[in-house]
Specification:
Elements (H helix, E strand, L loop, with lengths): L1 H12 L4 H21 L1 H4 L4 H16 L2 H28 L1 H61 L1 H19 L3 H17 L4 H24 L6 H14 L4 H21 L6 H26 L1 H5 L9 H25 L6 H18 L7 H33 L7 H14 L1 H11 L16 H18 L7 H25 L4 H29 L9 H10 L6
Helix pairs in contact: 2-4, 7-8, 7-9, 8-9, 9-10, 10-12, 11-12, 11-14, 12-14, 12-15, 15-16, 16-19, 16-20, 18-19, 18-21, 19-21, 20-21, 20-22, 21-22
């Protein structure tokens, strides 16, 4: 079309003059920029080919004449109509292609939008996917590590099984008393724990071994609480030393504490209903087992106990532990004697208990535990208490008999029968008293003249019974306090007679009989009892004074005819 326009312009106008050519050139140079801004193709920045065509067309338009330019719109309109008709004919002839192109375009646009949405979702899922890949990589590495560990475990299966069975085997050895093998297994497990302290399995095995070790420690300590001999004690303490659960000082304390518990259990099983039997068995327990425990301690801990005097001041615990425990045990024994000796009411039993205790002291003296000096005050006090109780019974019997006595003259035949009956009744006391007098013979026989005064005879029999109880345990320190008690009893009897005389109204014959009884108290009873007391305590007759008794009677004017 441009070519046609060009031909039409050339044929119509011909060649232009030079002046007109210059004007056209000048106008072209000034109009090109303005047309470039007006034409849409140039303003839209199309491709280079379109720009060249536009430039060529503009150049051509500038070469047209005015009439030609006026006709140019009509020509362009015709050309446009022709192109439209051509396009319509072409569209009618090829409408299927246009429809297919439109459908294809819509499908492409729809798929492109879906692809854009999927691409956006994919871009959003990329960080999660990267995190999942990292987690998968870590899990895979962990699984691989476990797999390698399992492979290594499978290769060492036999060794691991033996290691796992070690605590159970150790427990079996402990239950069966095979402590040497149990200690070897414990040492093996501790070495493994020392070499591999971070492995959980090794930590578990070490904890199980420690639990079994504590059970073994309890069994060994419990064995020390039983009746075991020195060899077994040596083995038990040797195992405790191998376990190293206690320092040496604490080990000694635990040994003595366990033996103390066993000894205390033996004592608690004794029957305390009978004081005499209880004291005898208590003394036997201390004599036998206290000696054994001290010997066991010295045999087991000989090294330290023999050199305690050379130890430093900070090591005094090991040196005094045995002494402290022995002192504690002896104190308990003395306290038990103080509690149960007052329950013994017979002199023979008290003497037997004293003999047992003295033998216990002599037996324990072989290990340096002679505490006989602590026994004498206890038995002296008990013997004196027993003697005082018997004298109190004699005084009470005198009071009862004095209150019910009838002051009448006793016939000679009746007196003989009464004397025979009294001799039969007091035969046992006379026999014991004769043996205590060591050959005193008939001088210690009760005078028959006392049968004329029955209250005095009853009192004399009571005093003889008290002396017979005392003679079995007649310790020398008891001489003076026993004499004081007996003198007090005589003065109490004299006072009772004085009180009786002042509170009773007696006839002339009764007064004479009462005066004779008073004289018998000071002239017969007191000398006789002084002789009996001297038979128990040689030289003790000087402690009894008839003068004091006579003074009591004379003060009340009772001894006068």
């Amino acid at each position: 079309m441009l070519g046609v326009g060009q031909q039409h312009t050339g044929s119509e106008h011909g060649v232009t003059s030079p002046s007109s050519s210059m004007l056209l050139a000048r106008g072209q140079s000034s109009a090109l920029p303005r047309l470039s801004t007006i034409l849409p193709g140039a303003a839209a920045g199309e491709s280079n080919a379109n720009n060249k065509q536009a430039d060529a067309y503009i150049t051509e338009l500038l070469s047209y004449s005015l009439d030609r330019l006026r006709k140019e719109p009509e020509l362009l309109l015709e050309e446009r109509q022709q192109v439209e008709r051509s396009m319509q004919s072409s569209a009618l002839g090829h409408y299927h292609a246009f429809i297919d192109s439109a459908n294809c375009l819509s499908v492409v646009q729809r798929q492109l939008s879906n692809a854009c949405e999927g691409l956006a979702g994919l871009s959003q899922s990329v960080p999660d996917l990267a995190g999942a890949f990292e987690s998968f990589s870590k899990d895979a590495a962990h699984v691989m590590a476990q797999h390698n560990a399992n492979k290594q475990l499978l290769a060492q299966q036999a060794t691991v099984l033996e290691l796992l069975d070690a605590p159970q085997l150790m427990d079996t050895c402990v239950r069966n008393g095979i402590y040497d093998e149990a200690l070897d297994l414990h040492a093996f497990i501790m070495r493994v724990a020392l070499l591999h302290p971070d492995l959980p399995l090794v930590k578990l095995l070490a904890a199980q071994a420690q639990a079994v070790s504590q059970a073994m420690l309890g069994q060994l300590l419990q064995r020390l609480r039983t009746n075991i001999q020195l060899p077994e004690c040596l083995r038990a303490v040797g195992y405790l030393r191998r376990m190293a659960s206690f320092p040496e000082g604490e080990l000694r304390l635990h040994f003595l504490r366990c033996r103390e518990e066993w000894l205390a259990q033996l004592i608690s099983e004794l029957d305390s209903s009978d004081s005499y039997e209880y004291v005898k068995h208590l003394t036997d327990v201390h004599r036998l087992h206290l000696f054994d425990i001290v010997m066991q301690y010295r045999a087991i801990f000989f090294d330290g106990s023999s050199q305690d005097s050379k130890a430093s001041a900070g090591n005094t615990l090991e040196g005094c532990v045995l002494f402290t425990w022995v002192q504690h045990r002896v104190s308990h024994y003395i306290a038990a004697l103080q509690q149960h000796l007052p329950g013994i009411e017979e002199g023979t039993q008290l003497a037997s208990a004293l003999e047992h205790a003295t033998y216990c002291c002599s037996s324990l003296s072989r290990v340096g535990l002679d505490f006989s000096c602590l026994l004498a005050p206890l038995f002296q006090l008990c013997a004196l208490r027993l003697f005082g109780a018997k004298l109190a019974l004699a005084v009470d019997a005198f009071h009862q008999r004095l209150d019910s006595h009838k002051w009448v003259v006793m016939p000679a035949p009746l007196l003989g029968k009464a004397a025979g009956a009294a001799g039969a009744a007091d035969g046992s006391e006379q026999q014991l008293q004769g043996s205590a007098g060591a050959g005193a013979g008939d001088d210690l026989a009760p005078p028959y003249t006392l049968m004329e005064h029955v209250p005095l005879a009853v009192f004399t029999n009571g005093v003889l019974s008290a002396l017979n109880e005392l003679r079995h345990c007649a310790l020398l320190p008891l001489q003076r306090p026993a004499g004081t008690l007996l003198q007090g009893s005589l003065e109490q009897v004299a006072s009772s007679m004085v009180h009786y005389r002042h509170t009773r109204s007696l006839a002339t014959t009764e007064q004479a009989l009462f005066a004779a009884a008073s004289r018998a108290l000071s002239d017969v009873v007191v000398p006789y009892l002084a002789g009996c007391f001297a038979a128990v305590f040689p030289g003790g007759s000087s402690l009894l004074s008839a003068v004091a008794v006579t003074a009591v009677l004379k003060d009340a004017a009772v001894s006068r005819n």
